[in-house]
Amino acid sequence: MKRILLVDLGERELKKRQELRARLQVLETIDKTAESSGGLNSKQLDELARIRKQLGSDVVIDPFYRLVAATHQQKDWSELRRDNAFVHEYGLLGSQRMLGNLLDPLEKNEREIASICGLLQIDGYTDASRPDFVQKISSAQGEYRRHRALFDAVYAQLSQRYEVSLKSQIDAGLVDPAIVGCVEPGGDPQSRAEVLDHAMAKRAAINAAQGAATRAAEAERAAQAAKESAQALARTVKEKQAELDALQGGSSRGNKEVTAAKRALTLATKAADAAAEQAKTAAVLAREALATAKEAKAEASDAAVAASIRASLAAFEPGPSETICALSGRNVAAVVRRLANEKVSANDAWLASRIQNAYDMDTGVVAGAPPSSMEIVLPDLDESTDVEIVRENLHAVQAIYFSWMLEEMHLPQVVERIVELFRAGLLPLGRGKAGDYLFNYYKRAVDRITEGERRDLYMRVFGAPGGDPNGNQPNREFNDLWLRFVSAVSSFARQLTVDRLLRSNIPVAVSQEQVRKAGRDLAANLSLHGYGIAYFAATELQSMIREYLEKLNDPELRTAFGARDIWQVIDQVNANYLGGPRNTHRYRTQAHAGAVIIRWLANHHQRLGGRFGEVISLAALTNPQLRGSDRPTVEPNDWDLVQACEQWLAVGGVQDDHVEQFAQPVESPVITSKPIEMPAFAREALESLTGGIGGSLNGALPPL
After folding, report:
1. Which of 329, 464, 584, 671 fits 118 for a cystine, CB–CB 3.0-4.6 Å?
2. CA torsion, points 401, 406, 412, 415, in degrees to nearest 10?
3. How far apart, in whole angstroms, are the C-alpha atoms of residue 303 and residue 186?
4. Whole-prediction pTM value?
């Protein structure tokens, strides 16, 4: 019997591991560039450790399967993993991870879990974070048990029918390459991959050959040195022998000199003998080292490396050349559902042919079937779409937006002015931390992002005025998309209260889909403009803001301005030196509210890209116990989003009729998933038609 590979589960696991590997690469890059990026925070360090642990194991990562298995068994997933019960590895369930002739067909509970997963995939319920997901599992389980006999018959017929090589499934992108060797020897998938990586094995063999050649050269030098030492001592013996012969031949010499000469000859002879023995030993070691180097050089050849990999593969189960039976729980569920709809029972005399015909219909392999017998099943365009909303880009945009609001408050300009006053001797500051900071700030002026560079960044990401229009492509759509999403969320929440619903001028209620559409448009727009330097600039801006707020809150500096808190310092500097006070309360509120909104988009972008389920949980808005997150700018919930939208609109002075107007849907703008360079002539033509960015910024955003 051959192993049964559930390719639908294997493909889902492959995608989840690819997502984690991409995230791992991002975190490792931040960690490696800690000097410029600021490194990882404690949460990111925990995330990095968790991802490495998950990728260092063959156990299924896919939360969809985990929750289905845990719900089916009425146990926590950690308990199932500990007992290694109903845990699949790359699409191989427990009964299919046995060695040799111990393989058995899928056992009863494994078939049921695989079928439930298949039914849920057909219906599009694959988001394990949905509040009604467990209910959908129970519904699918009920359908399976109603047609259990049909499911058993389909598994019995199809399980061993479609034999393919494991390598073909890996090459087709249906299963993770780490499946090779997951049964035997098991262990860390990365370690197995390194063994099977020809390039890595080649490099290891070359390094071994180079090391062996170095050791051979050292042994040769040692042998040569030992030989020269032995020759020198041999010459010394001859000299001592000549001296002794001369003493013994002369009559004027005494017995003492002869005795001393004999002793010196004896010592020299012993040393020469020892040196000669060492020279022989060194010569043997040199020859052995040279032979080892030659063997290592031969092993570094492509043929030898390939042979070594083949030898390792022979001990791996499953191996890439192993023949397995490919089966999809999703296809099985589709076949059973088709048969059930056609009122076919498990006792049908023609059941085998009906199963095969239904399978061929669903997989599109019917040979010569008339058009009337083929079902029209269009492809899922969202399933194969490239990632359009990049979470890391939104994280960068969050920090840039926060910095933009503080820029409108003149926070960096306030610090610059204070440094100028300090340099001119107009601040009553003595020796202390405040003076040290201001002096160091003055010295490091060339290392910081300038105001012009920040304005250019705000223009490119948000379409804000103040940047260089000749060197930047402003984000002209942000203003409208931002107001539409904030207004849609606010209107959706307001209609949940009767009195506000009755006072609404537009009776048409805002639906979840309108919120989803507005959120997706905004998130995709911000993600697009979050590429390039945005993430790296965001880390610099984050450090700069933290530094400013910490130093402006220094008691000595506050005392110098007679201020109780940091905001009074900012107000006084703005009023006395920067042309008048700014509305610090407004910008503080919008900085915090905007950060919450953008972080919510980043954390919940999967809701925006899906087609099912709630975008904003009604329970989170109506249940007081679910309200408010401890860290709304990091882990905002739906209640935090609604409050942030309401606060942003309130301090911005946006009237209710404008909110209702912007809450209504419009056609989505053209947004690419990645930046595309616009030709110069097209950009000039567009600017000539729009007159720059002034026409799109109509006063709705905070700075205007």
Report:
1. 329
2. -150
3. 26
4. 0.49
